[in-house]
Specification:
Layout: H1 2-14, E1 26-35, E2 38-52, E3 59-66, E4 69-76, E5 82-89
Antiparallel strand pairs: 1-2, 1-5, 2-3, 3-4
Length: about 120
């Protein structure tokens, strides 16, 4: 019993709190990259296309345009390599998974900003 409680407490302490975000939001993810024996932090800014899974297996997909090429990256929410997540804009979309966003270019690819109540 002691061993089980020790493992559960280790996993519970590992959970990282990130700001709330969902599909349509523009976020910046800062994550650690190891190159040889060096470690640096790189940022990836884009629109959240989807969040999927629950608990430790939850992931989210971010899409950004690099020149004329669309780049998507999938991040696990509980990844130890994620340094921080910053929400830049909150988008107003009607769907939880906005895969139609991949086909849009130019002005059609804009997402309206959701107004956030300030107290």
């Amino acid at each position: 019993m002691e061993a089980i409680k020790a493992v559960q407490s280790a996993f519970a302490a590992e959970d990282v709190k990130h700001p709330d975000f969902k599909a349509g939001d523009t976020i910046t993810v800062s994550y650690k990259i190891k190159e040889g024996n060096k470690e640096r932090i790189q940022s990836f800014r884009g629109v959240v296309i989807q969040r999927r899974g629950i608990g430790r297996t939850e992931t989210f997909t971010i899409r950004k345009m690099s020149g004329n090429i669309g780049v998507e990256r999938i991040f696990p929410v509980q990844s130890p390599f994620i340094e921080s997540i910053a929400v830049n804009k909150t988008g107003k979309v009607r769907r939880a998974r906005i895969f139609y966003f991949r086909d849009l270019t130019g002005k059609k690819a804009r997402i309206k900003e959701r107004r956030v109540k300030t107290v």
